[in-house]
Amino acid sequence: MSKKKMEELSKKLKYENKNGWKASHAYTDKVFRFAERYKEFLGKCKTERETIEQVLTELDKKKNNKDFFLINRGKNIAIVRLGKENGMKLIASHIDAPRIDIKQNPLFEETEIALFHTHYYGGIKKYQWFNIPLALHGVIVKENLEKITVNIGENEDDPVFIIPDLLPHLSHNVIDEKKVKEAFDAEKMNLIVGSIPIDKEEKEAVKLHVLNILYEKYGIKEEDFISAELEIVPAMKPKDVGFDRGFIAAYAQDDRICAFCSKEAFFDAAKNSKTIVALMIDKEEIGSDGNTGAKSRFLMDVIIKILKAKGKEATLESVGEFLSSSEVLSADVNGAVNPMYKDVHEKDNASYINHGVVMTKFTGHGGKYMANDASAEFVGKIRKIFNDADVNWQTGELGKVDEGGGGTIAKYLASWNMDVIDCGPALLSMHSPYEISSKTDLFETYKAYKAFFEE
Ligand code: MN
Ligand code: MN
After folding, report:
1. Looking at 185, 203, 234, which one is the last position of a domain?
2. Nearest ligand to the C-alpha of residue 121?
3. What's the 364 CA to ligand 2 centre distance in angstroms?
4. How far, in Å, is the centroid of ligand 1 from the Cα of 332?
5. Which partner from 29, 169, 218, 271 sits 20 to 30 angstroms from 378, CA to CA?
6. Which pLDDT does position 17 carry in this prediction?
7. Does any domain span residue 374?
8. Which ligand minimizes its atom distance to the CA of 410?
């Protein structure tokens, strides 16, 4: 065979995925503009509650008359646009992220420093949270049931909070010689919140000083912490990464990158045959339990509302028919190949940053345990939608077989008898306080979600 023929044959038959940047300059401009809006969104949304607030603000401005939404406990939202056909096109993301929570009786004083006890939330590498600037976000419900919203550490002149690390000179025995898993004790992850005593004589005068500041600012007493949800999150702002500004570093891109893209795609969808729904849920990082997680009944309430809005009665049968005709993108991120740790991946089935939105047919661990495994038919359908819309996409498995693994909300949604596949961009440094995404992947994720809604 001639060299030219071989090249043609290779091009025709071999599968190859592309680096998204190898498109035009016009593409780059569009992508960069989109990324600015994303960074602004991330800067405002550091918690699940704040994400809902932000989406509501945008909904107020953008909502077309026929759209409606349902909120669950300030931590879930479903935005709905009805379609003629039965079933829905659902894009489901999660808006909780790994973080550090404040314990219910948090405040104590040790060596004349006031500290908060903490309890980490989700899969963190504990060492990443020492000695970085942290902010405090959340709500406190007072005895009279008044709800106080807290947000300290984000403004330029706000103080920040820090979990103090140990100096290298003295960490040899207690940290350095231990395995990483054992070296960082969760009970030592206490947050510095004060250092000046309120009085010369008083015992625990630093603690009392902190309580007095909080009383003056919020009118709260120590017991009020018991009915609070206070989250410690990185105080860093979203920033571009690298000389060429191709990447974005920010906290909680798992999974707010998908939440952002799903709402943008929802607002921009020009047409839809099935009902389209952008769903944002909570508690994914700790197993999807509880009344705001993917296992809650909230989605069923959404479906009942949809059926009613379409003039149908919600019966076991009609709900079942609706569900079995529904298609779902479980919108979540994957772990991109880190150039220094390529060995944890199998190169032909790994996802690469800049190579587009990732379709993950199955998750789980070991022999596909605990996995949603999308059918060939459904994967084929999604693949066609993406190809028809010129979306840059790739397939990706989370790491080598038996290397580790993980799950998403896909399997909980699939248990309602809907077709579900995981689909979202790949991140570097996933679950770290400052995760890295690619601007081209961000844009391709938006394009993919929009094409899915519009099909
Ligand atoms: Mn996730
Ligand atoms: Mn996660």
Report:
1. 234
2. 2
3. 13
4. 5
5. 271
6. 87
7. yes
8. 1
Burial class (CB in 10 A: 0-12, 13-18, 19+), 212: exposed
126 Cα–ligand 2 center, Å = 15
Instruction: Let me know: does 371 contact 407? Beta carbons within 8 Å.
Output: yes
| C-alpha 426 – ligand 2 centre gap (Å) | 12
For residue 256, the ligand closest to its alpha carbon is 1
**Number of domains forming the structure of the chain:** 2
Confidence grade of residue 406 (pLDDT, cut at 50, 70, 90): confident
Nearest-angstrom CA–CA distance, 431 and 123:
7
Cβ atoms 438, 247 nearer than 8 A: yes
Q: 96-126: per-residue pLDDT in tens?
A: 999 999 999 999 999 999 999 999 999 999 9
Contact yes or no for 247/338 (Cβ under 8 A): no
Q: Look up the CATH number of the domain holding residue 91.
A: 3.40.630.10
Q: Are residues 193 and 92 in the same domain?
A: no
Length of the chain: 455
- Which two tokens mark 426? 């790949």
Distance 226 CA to ligand 1 centre (A): 29
| Dist. CA 405 → ligand 1 center (Å) | 12
Give me ligand 1 centre to Cα 167, in Å: 34
Pairwise CA distance, residues 155 & 407, whole Å:
35
